[in-house]
Amino acid sequence: MKLNQHFLYHEVSGQAVIVPTGGADFHGLIQGNKTLSVIAECLKNDTTEEAIVDALCARFDGDRKDIEADVRDAVQRLREIGAIDE
After folding, report:
1. What is the DSSP string of the chain?
2. How is the chain split into domains, by residue range?
């Protein structure tokens, strides 16, 4: 999976921002914390949920099961708005 070409990722003052371009069906702005920032960075290239979890576990302290659940939720929300290509 990878971030859809109609969505751009930026980091502004430590906050993740994912912005749809004119070609996206979603009209809005996605803002998040450092966790979303890591997820979005991973999605710049073709990746898997497991690889995203690994990246988050390497960067942050936390229970792997909790991180897996958070990644599943975030990826599902991004899928729902069409921000992820499979």
Report:
1. -EE-TTEEEEEETTEEEEEE-TT-S--S-EEE-HHHHHHHHHHTSS--HHHHHHHHHHHS-S-HHHHHHHHHHHHHHHHHTT-EE-
2. 2-85
